[in-house]
TrEMBL record:
UniProt xrefs under InterPro entries: 2-oxoacid_DH_actylTfrase, CAT-like_dom_sf, E2/Pdx1
GO CC field: mitochondrial matrix; pyruvate dehydrogenase complex
Pfam families per UniProt: 2-oxoacid_dh
First-listed, main subcellular location of the protein, grouped into a coarse class: mitochondrion
Protein name: PDHX isoform 5
GO molecular function: acyltransferase activity
Organism expressing this protein natively: Pan troglodytes
Length: 188
């Protein structure tokens, strides 16, 4: 179970900030997923800029967390907060929402467990993040006795353009993403 209470300048670090960081770190580890498809074919991207879906009165916008792999969790939280406010206020500049190398859409705050997100061309991938939900898991204590333990689980799915990120590569990405998210020390 993840619990966050770290604050700076009244900006709380959220689970979504860790998801953004885990995706960015995984893209750095697996540059073959950090690609786009233009009219001529696949294009390797030299930057890791994460587009984050934000619901506004005028529809969905995807402000970009630039160079997300190089940012710390608090920097990501600060950027998400500032860009989300600008998006909702209709004040995003084009360079703050056009481009990006990879997208994340989180509908957990709406009570959605899981969904399939639509890729934002020319990007090759998007993560769809559902809500945290409690589940019971059978575990063992130190003496080997069975016990029930409540855990918080989240479902993350990925849509990918199979011309550049096939099922095998997408599966490896998700496996690495899961390992990174479950071990926050890897995100440093």
């Amino acid at each position: 179970h993840l619990s966050f209470s770290r604050h700076r300048n009244d900006i709380k670090v959220s689970v979504n900030d860790f998801i953004i960081k885990a995706a960015a770190v995984t893209l750095k580890q697996m540059p073959d997923v950090n690609v786009s498809w233009d009219g001529e074919g696949p294009k390797q991207l030299p930057f890791i800029d994460i587009s984050v879906a934000v619901a506004t009165d005028k529809g969905l916008l995807t402000p970009i967390i630039k160079d997300a792999a190089a940012k710390g969790i608090q920097e990501i939280a600060d950027s998400v907060k500032a860009l989300s406010k600008k998006a909702r206020d209709g004040k995003l500049l084009p360079e703050e929402y056009q481009g990006g190398s990879f997208s994340i859409s989180n509908l957990g705050m709406f009570g959605i467990d899981e969904f399939t997100a639509v890729i934002n061309p020319p990007q090759a991938c998007i993560l769809a993040v559902g809500r945290f939900r409690p589940v019971l898991k059978l575990t063992e204590d130190e003496e080997g006795n069975a016990k029930l333990q409540q855990r918080q689980l989240i479902t993350v799915t990925m849509s990918s353009d199979s011309r550049v990120v096939d099922d095998e590569l997408a599966t490896r990405f998700l496996k690495s993403f899961k390992a990174n998210l479950e071990n926050p020390i890897r995100l440093a």
